[in-house]
Specification:
12 helices, 37% helix, 2 domains, disordered N terminus, single chain, 3-stranded antiparallel sheet
Length: 356
């Protein structure tokens, strides 16, 4: 077992032990002491999970301090809650490739409505106006190793004239929240959004309250393809009598049978219900995300995230813009290289070569 996994195992064991002990008042100082004992030396010299050997610190991805702060904050929140509430914690939270458990009745929309508030125009403009020079400068960071892959020929679906880009995610999921920024940037190079919404990941999951944009209730138009987004669960706990829940969160949108079959397909290299999941029109697919990406956004407001996207040297831009370059290349394979102004750039061509 790696040192990182040992740390994670010990952290979870300690938290479970505290929860099993039952409700008890715990001061903030005591909570911080528990967290520091476990996490104090987590990144003293180890390699961050999800990064290739020798890549630690490359291009500003050194985020050990932020991970420590997030871990302490998480421990404080959990331990303080123990002092006042009887709660049930699902060990592990969501994961880059965690399969959600949807109970019977998943077609029921337990939380009707158009989602969160509409995102301010200034925020959307900041995210969708990242210049080509930033995409070029960021390029394809070596830390991003979870790339779109070719769809096996055995996966066959019947579709209409416009090839769809299928995206399955959940509001509670921090990895989805982080990925949404990159996806908005990439999609905005092929079309236009209206009514993008504001949301944040679960307050009790890994990287709590990761700020992001939501596609639920939004519209997207493109001359090249359809964008089909399914937010399968909210960021709120499901009611005790709910007919459906996803890891304890309220169900939201159900996939049509044809899309659900793709999402659950064993032929797609282990997706089988993973979140987030993307299917690029039968050409490529991707499940999961860059493991530490939500932590890069920890403590940042949406506008701070959007602003950092324009600074190619920032860790946020390195992760999000770099990922957007790969998504752009995958979409270009869907559209047959259109529009050429986007798909013929050197960075997109290089990304395409890596995705084949």
């Amino acid at each position: 077992m790696s040192s990182h996994l040992q740390d994670e195992f010990e952290l979870r064991s300690r938290l479970r032990a505290l929860l099993d002990a039952g409700p008890a008042p715990v001061s903030a100082d005591e909570a911080i002491r528990h967290a520091v004992e476990i996490r104090g030396s987590e990144h003293s010299g180890g390699r961050m999970p999800g990064t290739p050997r020798g890549a630690r610190g490359v291009r500003g991805f050194v985020i050990g301090r932020r991970r420590l702060v997030v871990s302490i904050a998480f421990c404080v929140a959990v331990i303080v809650l123990v002092g006042s509430l009887a709660i049930t914690v699902r060990p592990g939270g969501s994961s880059p490739a965690g399969k959600p458990t949807v109970q019977p009745g998943g077609s029921v929309n337990e939380s009707p409505g158009l989602g969160g508030p509409i995102a301010p125009a200034s925020l959307v403009r900041e995210v969708t106006s990242v210049p080509q020079s930033v995409f070029n400068t960021v390029g394809l960071p070596s830390e991003l190793t979870n790339l779109p892959s070719s769809v096996p020929s055995s996966v066959v679906t019947k579709r209409s004239s416009k090839t769809p880009l299928l995206y399955v995610w959940a509001s509670y999921c921090p990895f989805c929240a982080a990925q949404n920024w990159a996806l908005v940037m990439a999609l905005s190079r092929f079309g236009a959004f209206s009514d993008l919404r504001l949301t944040a990941s679960s307050a009790t999951d890994f990287a709590p309250n990761t700020q992001t944009l939501s596609f639920y209730g939004a519209k997207y138009s493109s001359p090249y393809f359809r964008f089909e987004s399914y937010d399968i669960a909210t960021n709120e706990p499901a009611a005790s009598d709910a007919k459906c829940n996803v890891y304890g969160h309220s169900c939201l949108e159900a996939l049509p049978a044809v899309d659900d079959a793709i999402w659950q397909s064993k032929a797609l290299g282990g997706g089988e219900g993973s979140l987030p999941f993307m299917y690029f029109g039968g050409k490529l697919f991707q499940f999961g995300d860059f493991p530490d990406e939500p932590l890069l956004l920890a403590g940042l407001t949406r506008m701070q995230i959007a602003t950092e996207l324009h600074d190619p040297s920032s860790p946020v831009a390195q992760a999000e813009v770099g990922e957007a370059n790969y998504f752009t290349a995958a979409i270009c394979q869907m559209t047959g290289g259109r529009p050429s102004a986007v798909c013929s750039t050197a960075v997109v061509r290089k990304a395409e070569a890596r995705e084949r």
